[in-house]
Amino acid sequence: MKTLKIFPALLLMLLVACSGGGNQFAKNWKATDVNLNGTDFKAEVLGSFEFKYASDGTFEYVENGSVEKGNWKASEDGKSITLTYPDREVKQEVVQVSEQGLVVKYNDHGMQRQLTMTPQP
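^ thats the sequence. predicted structure below, dont judge the formating
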C-alpha cells in the first residue's frame, strides 16, 4: 500500500525534473539596463530592447521598433538560451533568472551585450 502512495509523488518529481528549463523563459521581457561592450546604460537612453520568448519555441527580438524573429531553446540546465535566426545562431548565457527578472549575456553583430530585463504583461 505504501508503494501506491509513493509512486504518484515520484512520478510528479520525475516529470518536473525532466521538463527542462525553458518554461521559466517563455515570457515577454523588456530591458531595463543594457551593457554594450563593457559600458552600462539605462535602456531608455538607448531605446527599447525586448525579447518575446513564446512557449512554442519561437521568439521575437525588438530593438527600437526593428523586429527579428526565429526559434529559441533553453539548455536542459537552464544556463543558456540558443537563438536561431534565419541567418545566424546566438547563444545567450543566463546570468540570472527569477520571476522578477532575467539577465542574459551574449555576443551578436560583433558586440558584447548584457541585458537586464523584467517580465511584461
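The chain is about 15% helix and 55% strand.
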